[in-house]
Amino acid sequence: xxxxxxxxxxxxxxxxxxxxxxxxxxxxxxxxxxxxxxxxxxxxxxxxxxxxxxxxxxxxxxxxxxxxxxxxxxxxxxxxxxxxxxxxxxxxxxxxxxxxxxxxxxxxxxxxxxxxxxxxxxxxxxxxxxxxxxxxxxxxxxxxxxxxxxxxxxxxxxxxxxxxxxxxxxxxxxxxxxxxxxxxxxxxxxxxxxxxxxxxxxxxxxxxxxxxxxxxxxxxxxxxxxxxxxxxxxxxxxxxxxxxxxxxxxxxxxxxxxxxxxxxxxxxxxxxxxxxxxxxxxxxxxxxxxxxxxxxxxxxxxxxxxxxxxxxxxxxxxxxxxxxxxxxxxxxxxxxxxxxxxxxxxxxxxxxxxxxx
Length: 357
What we know:
D-amino Acid Aminotransferase, Chain A, domain 1, six-stranded mixed beta sheet, Adenylation_LigC-like, ATP binding
């Protein structure tokens, strides 16, 4: 491979802001695997956000990218999987599997799409110093004949359209809106763009915690919600605390600590078979590897209000944010019924939208 921009390349990132900023290019924020694709003739390399190759996990995309991308180019985008008209991150994570036979089975069963939103090189020209508005025009031109599963991300410079996307596209599983300054060069690894994400709050039960990697202080709180059958399901974690607060939480939660966790709702968390019928903490996965998943069981008596962006199935998609303790709420009142459901919006309508507006 001999391209003007060679792998690995760290993608340009975004900083969170509270509102959609004016005077920029706007795109939907895709909820998938960020990927930078290098193509030089028949050779295709798909690099992850960390620079590690994803190529072997998406063989169907390698073929599609050869068919749809220019012969020599570097393209920034997102790998996604659609299911029942919306993005499905859990099915996407299943593709990171060590067995090639399993990868190819899933490639046939749940094929992935690639959504392109930036162009870093074309032919012999590096475009990192080229303003975004010009890179966008070149991307649309270069991928004008692209066919599914390769798509150009819809983009607009109309803030009113961006606000409409922000409301509508969540129903298709998208994550918010990204705003990019029109004169922005491509800055690998820098947080030079802006993202606006949905934020909601929920009251959850604190039913355990994990220790921090630095020692005997709280690393993350384990959060639960009661389902329709009255079972407490593990829905995610709350983890961003200053070190002093981590120390305080150990003492604060000590009265709830169970000497014997056998009666805890999540006592079977270390039994891999138990996770088939319930969402419990402690299940090993290809993501956790040898990571210590042990946790301290707490009597599920305290209620916490957290902020979250959106759900992935029956759990929080990302780490929840601590807001406040809720002594006025009972644990039994913390159910899935309190969660706001976005109005559904078919993902095909997003992908079929105009590449620019």
